[in-house]
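Structure ticket #2291
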Amino acid sequence: MTKETWVTGLALFAMFFGAGNLIFPPYLGMESGSLWPVGLAFFVLIDVVMACVGIYALNAAGGGEVAFSRTIGKVPANILNTAAIVCTGILIAMPRTAATTYEMAVTPLFGDGVPMLPFSLGFFALVLLLTIAESKVVDIIGKVLTPLLVLGVGALIACGIANPLGPIGEPHSGMVVQDGISAGYQAMDIICVIGYSIVLQNALKGDGFKARSQQLRILTFASLVAAVLLTAIYGGLTYLGATTGQTFGPGLDQAALIVAITEHLMGRTGVVILGFVVLLACLTTAIGLISATAEYFRQLTHDRVGYRFGVVFCVVAGILICNLQLDNIIRWASPVLAMVCPPFMTTIVLILFARLIPSRRLYQGAALGAFLASLPLALHDAFGICSFVEVMPLYSYGFAWLPYAVLGGVAGWLLCRAEKDPLAEKGHKRRGRRDASSPGSG
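Resolution: structure written out below.
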């Protein structure tokens, strides 16, 4: 693999590995106990596999926005993509980076001596300085910040493996699979792929890789680099959490748990190191999210909203929202993500097989089916209503929306046969040309 592949892979890993990626695996391990490999497997499936496959699929299909527009149509694509970008780059994931840094790096070291507002101003001022130069984003993250981040997290995991905090006990949760899937949703990497694919494509073009084949080759191996690093670190963090089940109990929240683990393993020095790691993880993710969001809206509005204006807007939004505190952001995010992630994931997976699916209605029906099924699931998660969802197929596995996505896809495919479907017509023409040119035709 080339130097550019490694730099891009490390940058992609760092953009994915942010606030949620650091705090959710240990908590999942504590809740899962002896079943931590099961919880980890489903977390990795939703977060790592789907996100890295999504980066490949979107770029193989022509790029994020192009891939969605060609499959589900321009208007539905804009709605779904914009919902994902707003969740990640404005409302939830991006402000959560500052809130997580404050609760895990500032509060343990300084208590209430540093209020949230001045800290958030300083945090986002630094993000602004590192993001405003669009072409430098990937180099800053991949060459400088990521190696430091990997070393810090690796040191913490190595200490936990060498000196386990305690024996791994029985699970505290009876829904380990659902917990893993929910943590994967909360990490939000799957719905970051649209913005990140745009940032990475632009960076590669800026480095002289103009051909689509060159970009796709680099991004394919870069996705593998990111996937391996993410899986290894998630595994270590989940194991650390599993060793705390009989030491701390389930009373701690996500941020407090990782701080307690670090202090028990490495003392006060460890808390300082953790603060540094958290700052790097959240800083790299905030840079990636803000850059991706600003570039997305620049392209969506055909340069009427400039990149730098988008960066400044996101920074201001981040300052305002992060002061609502981490627990509130996580709580409010859960039902929103339960609605956005299923149709987004469904479309990503189908795009991976775009050459085999000539019907636009199939894409639209599958995404709509996933969304309609996710509505009562989100309401049940947020307010305890719509209890009928508990008898839906695959509910106990966290995939109650999946059968309805399949049914929607089948309904869309049947509908396309009763009307003229642009993608279906193109598919028939391509097959016709292959048949006409094949030996023995005519």
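Closing remark: The radius of gyration is 22 Å.
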